[in-house]
Amino acid sequence: QVQLVESGGGLVQAGNSLRLSCAASGRTFSSYAMGWLRQAPGKEREFVAAISRSGGSTWYADSVKGRFTISRDSAKNTVYLQMNSLKPEDTAVYYCAARVTPTTTTEYPYWGQGTQVTVSS
Question: What is the DSSP letter of 40?
Answer without folding.
Answer: -
